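Budget justification aside, the reviewers requested a transparent look at the raw inputs and outputs of the sequence design task funded under Objective 1. We therefore reproduce one unedited record. The lines immediately below are the structure tokens for a 151-residue chain.
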């Protein structure tokens, strides 16, 4: 009885399911290698709120970053007056979301030119590894044991 409980504890692998730890480690290594190769080919540049907008009458290119700070500053002012102000928290959070969205949308992401073979290798490693990781979380039945010989 005691040895059966120990055998059950040893049988659990990735995700608390029986078996699969080797598949998990192989998939994790493949996904890490594929992810690194893909991110190594990506170039990210930014021009924080660089696009802005053009004032047509005077032909002036206006930066819109200052406008994105208005709800944030008003929300902070409300919170200094009353820390429990729902309006202050909503304005502060909305201001932060606007600022983060502005940063995210101003990024320019480019995939550097590479060969088809390298691209396929990167994608197979990444998605094949993720597939193996997810497969390892599924329960893998133990192989049938041979009958013990009577002593």
């Amino acid at each position: 009885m005691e040895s059966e409980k120990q055998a059950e504890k040893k049988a659990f692998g990735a995700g608390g399911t029986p078996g699969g730890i080797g598949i998990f480690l192989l998939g994790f290594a493949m996904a890490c290698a594929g992810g690194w190769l893909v991110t190594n080919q990506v170039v990210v540049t930014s021009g924080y709120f660089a696009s802005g907008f053009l004032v047509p009458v005077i032909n002036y290119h206006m930066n819109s970053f200052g406008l994105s700070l208005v709800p944030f500053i008003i929300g902070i002012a409300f919170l200094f007056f009353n820390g429990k102000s729902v309006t202050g928290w909503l304005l502060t959070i909305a201001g932060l979301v606007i600022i983060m969205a502005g940063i995210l949308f101003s990024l320019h992401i480019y995939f550097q030119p590479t060969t088809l073979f390298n691209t396929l290798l990167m994608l197979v490693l990444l998605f094949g590894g993720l597939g193996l990781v997810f497969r390892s979380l599924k329960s893998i039945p133990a192989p049938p044991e041979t009958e013990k010989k009577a002593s």
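Strands lie at 42-46, 53-55, 60-62, 107-111. The radius of gyration is 28 Å. Computational costs for records of this kind are itemized in the attached budget.
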